Amino acid sequence: MSPRSIRPLSRTLLLACALSSALPAAALSSPPNLLFRVSADQGFVANQAQGDAVPNFQDKVSLVDDGAHGRAIRWEDDGVLSWNAPGNIRAERGTLSFFWRPRYAVGEAPFVIFRVGYADHSSWDMTWLRIDWNGHGFDAFVTDANLARTRVSFRLDRNPSPDQWQHIAFAWDEDQGVRLFLDGREVARVDTTGDYDAALDQLGLAGRVMAPYQVQSRYNFLRGSDFDEIRVYDRMLDATGVAALARNAAPDAGQTAAATQRAWWHRYGWESAPPPLLDAAVTTIRKVEFADVKDKKQWMWKGTDGIAETTWPGVYNRSRLPGRNDYFQLPDWNTYVEGGQHLDLTVPDGEAINRIEIRGAAFGTLGGDAGTLFTRPRGVVRSVDEFPAQTGGTLRFSNAEQETPIQEIWGYHVSDAAEPQGTVRQRYLIDSRVLPDYTNIAALRDYIDGRFAPDERSVVMALPKGAGSRKRSPDTLPAQPRPIVHVLVPSGVGDAPAAQPLIRSWAHSWENMHDGLDGIAIDLPALDLPATHDGPGGGVIPLNIRIKDPIWPARDMIDVSVSVRPGQPRTLWLDLRDRILTADSLWIAIAAAAPGFNAASLDGAEVRLVFKDRSEALTEHVADRFNQVRDNWGFLVEEHTTSKRQRLYARVYADLSDLLRVDPDHALGRLYWNYISYNSQGRPPFQQPQPPKGVPLWAFRQLEDLRRVRRFVDWWIDHRQVEYGDFGGGISDDTDLTQQWPGLALMGVEPDRLNASLTALSDAVYRNGMFANGLSTIETDELHAYEEGINANSAMLYLNWGDPLTVERLMETVRAFDERIILRNPQGHLLFSSNWFGGNKVYREPNWQWQKPYSFPALHPAFLLGEYNADPTGRTLVTGLADSYLAHAYTDDTGRWTLPNEIHWATGKTRGGELNQGSGAGDVMHTFWAAWRWSGDDRYLKALDYRVQRGGPGALSNLGENIIDVLGRQQDWGRQLVAAADKGDTGFAAVTAWQLSGDKSYLEALHAEGIQAKAQREYMNTEGHWWSDRVEAPSEFLQRLRLGGIALKRNQSFPGHTVSWRFARPGAAEQVALLVHAPSRERFKVIAWNMADVPLEATMTGWNIAAGTWRIRSGIDRDGDDRIDGKPQVREVALERSASTALRFAPKQAHVFEFERIAAGTPVETRADLGIGRGDLQVLDGRVRLTVHSLGHVATRPGHARLEDARGREVARVAIPALEAPSDLHPRTLTLELPLPAGFDRRGASVRVLQDGDAEEVTLLNNRLPLP
Fold it and tell me: String of b and e for 196-219 (b: at least 16 CB within 10 Å)?
């Protein structure tokens, strides 16, 4: 077979012109059809609805009497009101209109007015249509099949007043473009053609998202308004019709709809050459399921899932596609920065493939083992290409324009193989005269009615001979149908409608069928229709045939395009992926290019279901259903929806239920269901690993727990991180993922590898332009502003303490918060002044001036600088915010002292109840803890007492330090936690119980839980390819034990770790179990067990400790009481934050190290700091160019930089003058040069900077760099 691709042909175009007069004319003469209307006069149920009239979701909306015409809908800022879209709105064309009132003043801040969402998609918000206030007028768009948006924008001369009603109408048509009307007058238009065909989910009012997995008004999308007379029509109304709507009158009957031949042929790819001809009496088309589908390293099933609305790739938030990059740049995008360029498809071993069908606008080349197989041109949305068969191997589609999507890519093997005999054959005949009224096809009919326009609803039944039926009347079929017929095959004849004769002594069904469906044969009758295209040997008629998944009709099991000659019958054997059928009926959709194709065209056609042995069918059924679950939940997990009113959850529920129906013991399926059902049915059984003989159980389990964290992190680095530095979850979510890296590295596990990974992502943040003036480039809400890279910069400091680039990036962010975000309000309180901001714009209108609990994680840089060099600005921000929060405390109705949830910057008003009811309430405690740590003022601890009074001491579990001992709360908080641990609670309770009792059985239980949880979620957290901010192998309890506190986890922003570890031998961290007991800044104990057969050495670095001289007593614990037996070894060392000491662990023994400060030193954060780091050293033209930074609390002394060889001998030096401290958060740097002697051996050489007189510094970790 030679390569073959669809290309434009002149005769095809001539035929198209000749047939245009034969198009259905009903749309040209019929009056506009009102699909949906909510007057609001009687409530929220639609007065008229072709689909569901009752709202799907309704919250915080009400009715008011002063509407534009009667009563109106009042949409509160955080409310939602949505109706199901099927039947009520159509994607191809329509008009949406309503009366709208701002309710309070509008300004430069844009906000959403109305949304319509896709039924499924690959973008986070799944938006198909949106109407917005754009800051100066209105924007509106619809989205076409290539994900581009046909958008119009209109600027008002004057902003509407809060109580002013305006009439807004937006019309779209894939043959004409879009129109925007204001008060009955057209104000903007785009004339274009396209493919708008799509399944839609919901329409209505939701600020942030209206999608089949979330309907929500939240974060910076909190801005309601008022609505009256919401209407949707079936076509684009003209100015006269819209003017009538603006008068609240019905549009005139004379409106016209566009002819659709261009759109119809374009949708199916028939505007060019016809698809391959069925030139044999019987043709077999076997669907070849790709074994793997990857974009770079990310599994990308959505381009092969059979659902047209999902795409490869996902949508980049600052998209290059037309009309997508606007004032709402979403922080969630789930794709690589450089994704959407290549799609790699693995053909299963032993499977041959010789045809590719693609739906979607992507254009480029498909390559295989033999080289380029075909080139796909720009402008098509459906194509068929044939090529010599390739068996196994990999195919790669290379996109000519990044991001342009593939909706579906299908791989087929086409041959003249005979239809198999099968174990069972069931035969069904199509008769268009039969009324399709069986009750087991009612759900399919409802779906068709909601998805297709009336003239696309030609429905016929295929029944076995002898089945009872009723004759249909002509009005049960479209009078002037488009050329598409829906063939419904009932799963059994026992679901006959009511009021019919009883059928007895006969039955026919596939219900409870043991065998599996192998495929479906269709005898296509000879079509008595004129040819529409020029094919091989004469005229042909293109057809498109789709077989829908019985349990999810929005998903195609196969979608093939063929051509037939007029008057020539043909048989197609469609070799599907095997299925063990449920009692759901089958739906086959057949579309044609010929206008005369209708229900009667298929009369007499036979449909045969061919079954195979169940054992043979199980493999494909189980594999496919699991992949469908895996793909859907990998996306759905972002919002954790569990309502079956949300179609993505309904789909995952259907697929997983079908998987477990067929394979009830499917191990991964059971684990997914356990997670999805929130462990409400108990976890699947788990066998704990057993320790080697002689190894304490606590030590073995701790290391097993630690090992599983490392495996998780390694998987993401090896299998998802790419050269650009990102992991494919969207960088803003990837930065959430890598908050897990520092804690593991500080515990001694692969510190250099993890730091390299974290650094690569940090560099990607800047390479991708995500920072502007210290804040995010995009304007986003209070939480996601932190996740746009502020969190990544903060995480970098844990592993690169004193690195000037990292410190100065944090300085820039703290300065930006001080100058633009955290400001004194008119009442004199320091508060977050905006909850929607970026580095280029801050929205300060009243709706966006609320300080929220989720505002506080962004203080991370202030916390770190406050610790690093006692930065006065950062400390002032933190203590000022804490003071102002306390100033807004109040006494509640029960007499309890209470902190508010949200505080308005301008007015000081509060809302949302108390802090404990707010999302992120626990994160706010870091602010009070830091304020107490820096000031010693106990009034800040009142916030902690408040939190404990509401939720117990466990509510403080994300405070990283050993708070029970530090605050002396052993007798109250401690006892409560011990009691909880005794009842089986693990986590913080278990750690505290061990700290207070020394009983390691608490730790054995803690780690047993950690091992099981990580083991049973390992697949989901890795190969499940979830959104990268939703995967986690928790290590905070490991950090508490091994580090003496939590260094870092997501949104845990004030470091609490006492020490960190670096082992001399690779992998040694997973051989040495460590416990830091009773950690404080003055003393602590380290308990260790070395499982290895050899001594292991480690460097322990101090962090949350006081500077000074420390005494170390060490020895062996021979009886397990955590005390030194025999004479201890004693030594004294200088220890402080970032200073280290060496420890040695003998094999197979328990060690105890007791640390106690015996002499105070100068607080490190008050010192000067001279530093060099990443990017500061260059070798140019025989000279070393060096940039030196002052990073400390006070000015540096004069000093020098010197070049040293591998043995530490000075080779060259240059003086460094005194540098002032960066007290204003602007960098203080100096660039200087050192000569590089001729012939100097640079191997092992370094550059070192120091102050004269060996002055103390904040850290010595930034004083030396290797010579490149």
Answer: bbbbbbbbbbbbbbbbbbbbbbbb
Residue 500, Cβ density class (10 Å: 0-12 exposed, 13-18 middle, ≥19 buried):
exposed
Determine the pLDDT at residue 27: 45
- Burial state string for 1185-1207 with b = 16 or more CB within 10 A and e = fewer than 16: ebbbbbbbbbebbebbbbbbbee
Query: Is residue 12 helix, strand or coil?
Result: helix
Q: What is the pLDDT of residue 501?
A: 81
The residue whose two tokens read 């390691």 is: 1000
Q: What is the pLDDT of residues 947-993, one digit of tens each?
A: 999 999 999 999 999 999 999 999 999 999 999 999 999 999 999 99
Q: Is the CB of residue 131 less than 8 Å from the CB of residue 166?
A: no
Angstrom distance (rounded) from CA 1257 to CA 330: 42
pTM of this structure: 0.96
- Is the CB of residue 413 less than 8 Å from the CB of residue 355? yes
Q: What is the pLDDT of residue 502?
A: 81
Confidence at residue 614, expressed as pLDDT on a 0 to 100 scale: 98
Helix, strand, coil percent values for the chain (each to nearest 5): 25, 30, 40
CA distances from 308 to 197, 272, 305, 546, 648 (A): 10, 21, 8, 12, 14
Q: Are 887 and 833 in contact (CB under 8 A)?
A: no
- Cα–Cα distance, 208 to 686 (Å, whole number): 40
- Phi first, then psi: give them for residue 259, nearest 5 degrees: -65, 155
C-alpha 279/C-alpha 194 separation (Å) is 32
Q: For residues 384 and 355, is the Cβ–Cβ distance under 8 A? A: yes
- Residue 25: predicted pLDDT: 44
Question: Could you give the dihedral angle defined by the CA atoms of residues 868, 869, 872 and 873, in that order, rounded to the nearest 10 degrees?
Answer: -50
Distances (CA, A) of 689 to 701, 1012, 1036: 8, 10, 22
587 token code pair:
């739906």
Q: Which of 784, 866, 854, 723 is nearest to 1225 (CA)?
A: 866
Which residues are CB-contacts of 1252 (< 8 A; sequence separation ≥ 6)? Answer: 1197, 1198, 1199, 1200
Between the alpha carbon of residue 1263 and those of residues 32, 1250, 1258, the distances in Å are 77, 7, 11
Amino acid at 1264: R
Token digits for 880?
């000022």
For residue 71, the cross-strand partners are none
Residue-level pLDDT at 442: 98
The pLDDT value given to residue 253: 64
Considering only CA atoms, which of 1010, 1008, 1032, 1036 is closest in space to residue 1021?
Answer: 1032
Q: How far apart are the first and last CA of the chain?
A: 57
Taking the CA of residue 939 as centre, how many other CA atoms within 13 Å lie in the half-sphere pointing to its CB?
A: 9
CA-nearest of 430, 459, 658 to 552 is 658
Calculate the alpha carbon distances from 461 to 437, 570, 610, 940 in Å. 9, 20, 18, 74
Q: Which H or E run includes 591?
A: strand 586-592
Element (H, E) at 587: strand 586-592
In this structure, the chain runs to a length of: 1268
List of the chain residues with pLDDT < 70? 1-29, 253-259
Alpha carbon of residue 1031 to chain centroid: 11
User: In the prediction, which pLDDT does 29 show?
Assistant: 57
Q: Is 201:212 a contact under the CB 8 Å cutoff?
A: yes
Separation between Cα atoms, residue 191 and residue 618, nearest integer Å:
51
Instruction: Sort residue 802 into left (φ over 0), alpha (ψ -120 to 50) or beta.
Output: left
Q: Are 400 and 363 in contact (CB under 8 A)?
A: yes
Helices 697-719 and 1036-1043, interaxial angle, to 10°?
120
643-668 CB burial, b ≥16 within 10 A, e <16: eeebbbbebbbbbbbbbbebbeebeb
Would you say 946 and 901 are in contact if contact means Cβ atoms under 8 Å apart? no
Q: How far apart are CA 738 and CA 127, in angstroms?
A: 29
